[in-house]
Amino acid sequence: MSHCFSHNPQGVGRLYRHVSTLSILLATLGITAELHAAGEVRRSLWSLQELGPALLAAEPSALTTVGIWVLLSGPILGLLHLVLRGARSHSMRRVTLSCGVLAMVLVSLPIKACV
Question: Is 99 helix (H, G, I), strand (E, B) or coil?
Fold first, then answer.
């Protein structure tokens, strides 16, 4: 591990643990409620456009979708954590590297959605 990211590496690990726990909790609640209500699990996720109305309508499968979106947000939240931690420690190297990786991840999202 490089010296640049060696200061307090537990912060990102703790963040990922919380994100993973929340994701599993939401997905499990959604699947359990869906099995109880309908006897089966929806085979696809809600689109972002459909997710809000599905949550307002108390669709159990919407919780599963939210759980998966929370899990997918983990790497972005981890990179934001590294950017903020680097800024607090006045480490321009850490901020620059983290922002570069974050920019690549964010740029790839719309590209992946179009493919």
Answer: helix
